[in-house]
Amino acid sequence: SLKGRFKFLENSVVTSLVHIYIEEIPNPVSINDPSWNTRDIALDAIKALSSFGQFLVSVIVFIFVFTPVWILIAGLIYGTKKLRNRNK
Q1: 15-53 pLDDT tens trace
Q2: What is the tally of structural domains in the chain?
Q3: CA geometry: angle at 13 spanning 11 and 4, to 5°?
Q4: Nearest-angstrom CA–CA distance, 71 and 68
Q5: Would residue 81 count as lying in a domain?
Q6: Residues spanned by the domain of 82
Q7: pLDDT given for residue 27 in this prediction
Q8: pTM score of the predicted model
């Protein structure tokens, strides 16, 4: 069985034929696009990164500024729940 498979593969490889067709492109497309400027793209990316950083800093400042208010609100909620449980 194994010898038969080997013989079949050997015969099929011997009779195999490969065609290769190579053709030159007559007018290659230029990649020089005047609307695509790497300097402008890099500057836009830096501006976007800067804007994201400013947003992150604003969020952090907002969290730190309002932390005492949140602690007060959390304390009031916790205190009222504790009083309700004590009265039951």
Answers
A1: 666 677 777 777 766 667 667 788 888 999 999 999 999
A2: 1
A3: 40
A4: 5
A5: yes
A6: 60-88
A7: 73
A8: 0.45
